[in-house]
Design goal:
With 189 residues, the chain is mostly helical. The chain contains 5 helices and 4 strands; from the N terminus they run E-E-H-H-H-E-H-H-E. Helix 1 packs antiparallel against helix 2, helix 3 runs parallel beside helix 5 and helix 4 runs antiparallel to helix 5. The termini are far apart. It is an enzyme of class 2 (transferase).
Length: 189
């Protein structure tokens, strides 16, 4: 099988049920999700040992779910019966968030992306995820989409923020506080 097909040489690409121009908002949305998936794969390649075995397992599951998100956004016409992303996935992310957040030190100020290399890369995932969410919102203004994809991406960016802090906490690396920030968060711990 050849990887190249030449069918996109005129600036169009295939989606489920038709073809669109390559810079269509639909392609931008699922293309940004694909970009995010690459960064998640990079994080997985950085994670070694038992210290992060739980996070590595979660991240691998997230990679599959990101493919599902892209698939759900790739339909020309709304096809709810074929959707893969559901509210249950969002709820599961919230459970993971709550579990990991218990390990993190109280947060009082904004923090800068950084600390450990894995944590820094998770912050890249967070920002690309936010962009994917914005692209999905834009797409949703033009056509009907699976609303659970938007919810999933919203929660996923929170997940990346929390586990970036969890990685630092487990490694004994302090988060880098934004020094010009006032205390903006109230600790619940």
């Amino acid at each position: 099988m050849k990887v190249y097909t030449r069918t996109g040489d005129k600036g169009e690409t295939s989606v489920i049920g038709g073809r669109v121009i390559k810079d269509d908002n639909q392609v931008e949305a699922y293309g940004t999700i694909d970009e995010l998936n690459c960064f998640v794969g990079q994080v997985i390649s950085l994670v070694e040992g038992e210290l992060f075995a739980d996070l590595k397992e979660q991240l691998l599951e997230i990679q599959h779910e990101l493919f599902d998100c892209g698939s759900d956004l790739a339909f020309v016409k709304l096809s709810e019966s074929k959707y893969k992303v559901t509210g249950e996935l969002v709820e599961r992310l919230e459970l993971w968030l709550d579990t990991c957040e218990k390990e993190n030190p109280p947060l009082e100020r904004f923090i800068l992306p950084g600390g450990d290399l894995i944590s820094s890369t998770l912050h890249v995932c967070r920002t690309v995820c936010r962009r994917a969410e914005r692209r999905t919102v834009t797409l949703g203004k033009e056509k009907d989409i699976n609303p659970d994809v938007r919810k999933y991406l919203n929660r996923l960016s929170d997940y990346f923020f929390v586990i970036a802090r969890t990685v630092n906490a487990r490694k004994g690396v302090a988060d880098i506080e934004y020094v010009r920030s006032q205390k903006v968060f109230k600790s619940e711990k």
